[in-house]
């Protein structure tokens, strides 16, 4: 019985080590970062979508990550908002991801490198929520990447 118990106790240690995140991302190698968004919000749930690029730019630059609105982006921060109004408030979800190009079977494809999402309910609109979502992901995730 001791051998079985000991094996069961030792088993999680290598599994924990495998779950430790190791990635090649740095602020330098994801930059410059472009921005795109999809607005699937209805009934006035997101009225300032046109300001999203400026919000993303400010959040990225605050973390020392270069932003571009040109074709020279190495990666793209993509925001998707899906919301509708019911019972006086907006509800739905959002997804913010960082996309980058990789080569697969000799072809360049875009893949999601990082992502974050949130659900919301009862908001008058998402105009104040979107900056919080962007600041949170950029600040806690991308901002934690080493500079080089």
Short account of what is shown:
The chain has 148 residues and is α+β, with helices and mostly antiparallel strands. The protein has helices at residues 2-10, 12-19, 27-30, 52-62, 129-140; strands at residues 33-41, 75-86, 89-104, 107-123.
Features:
single chain, about 150 residues, alpha+beta, 4-stranded mixed beta sheet, about 35% strand, elongated, disordered N terminus, signal
Provide an overview of this structure:
This protein is of the alpha+beta class. It has one domain. It has five helices and four strands. The chain has helices at 2-10, 12-19, 27-30, 52-62, 129-140; strands at 33-41, 75-86, 89-104, 107-123. Strands 1-2-3-4 form a four-stranded mixed beta sheet, covered by helices on one side. Strand 2 and strand 3 (89-104) form a beta hairpin. The protein starts with a helix and ends in an 8-residue tail after the last helix.
Secondary-structure blueprint:
Layout: H1 2-10, H2 12-19, H3 27-30, E1 33-41, H4 52-62, E2 75-86, E3 89-104, E4 107-123, H5 129-140
Parallel strand pairs: 1-2
Antiparallel strand pairs: 2-3, 3-4
Helix pairs in contact: 4-5
Query: What do the pLDDT scores average to?
Result: 87
Q: How many helix segments?
A: 5
Order of strands across the main sheet? 1-2-3-4
Distance between termini? 50 Å
Low-confidence stretches: 1-19
Roughly what fraction of the amino acids lie in strands?
35-45%
* SSE succession: HHHEHEEEH
Overall tally of domains: 1
Oligomer: single chain
Keywords: Signal
Signal peptide: 1-17
